[in-house]
Amino acid sequence: MAIMADAPTNPLRIDDSLLQELGLGKMPQEDKSSLLKHIYETLEMRVGMRLADLMTNEQLDEFERFFNAQDDAGAFHWLESNFPNYKEIVAEEFAKLKDEVSQTAPQILAAIQPNPSESNQPSQ
């Protein structure tokens, strides 16, 4: 379930502009798509875990009903009613995740670039 990115008033952008901002704009498109999906899923998991830690068992059951019904609109309404600060939690987790990805950007780029010394070796 999309806890945050599908909200109509959500200013978070998990797209090519984010990768540009993080210094990863030169990645091949296939790698960009994979990384964006990973960022989204990681953010969704972290937000879900933080919210779950704040919920009572009854609230967890209520929210799970929206999840099982795949009712994103109902889930957003429920979150806004029960956790009016949930967007702040999303923003905090997004900022942390962006910082983590930004710090590892050089390693990410190095991992997807072929090593020129290996590709120029003559075959024996």
Walk me through this protein's architecture.
The model is unreliable at 5-9 (pLDDT under 50). Helices cover 69% and strands 0% of the residues. The longest helix is centred in the last third of the chain and has 27 residues, at 86-112. The termini are far apart. The chain has helices at 16-21, 29-54, 57-68, 72-82, 86-112, 116-119. Helix 2 (29-54) packs antiparallel against helix 5 (86-112). By secondary structure, the protein is an all-alpha fold. The chain has 6 helices and no strands. It has a domain at 16-100. The protein is elongated, with a radius of gyration of 19 Å.
Keywords:
124 residues; mainly alpha; 6 helices; 69% helix; elongated
Total strand segments: 0
Strand content: under 5%
Shape: elongated
Class by SSE composition: mainly alpha
Order of helices and strands: HHHHHH
Give the helix/strand layout.
Layout (H helix, E strand, L loop, with lengths): L15 H6 L7 H26 L2 H12 L3 H11 L3 H27 L3 H4 L5
Helix pairs in contact: 2-5
What's the short story on this structure?
69% of the residues lie in helices and 0% in strands. It contains 6 helices and no strands.
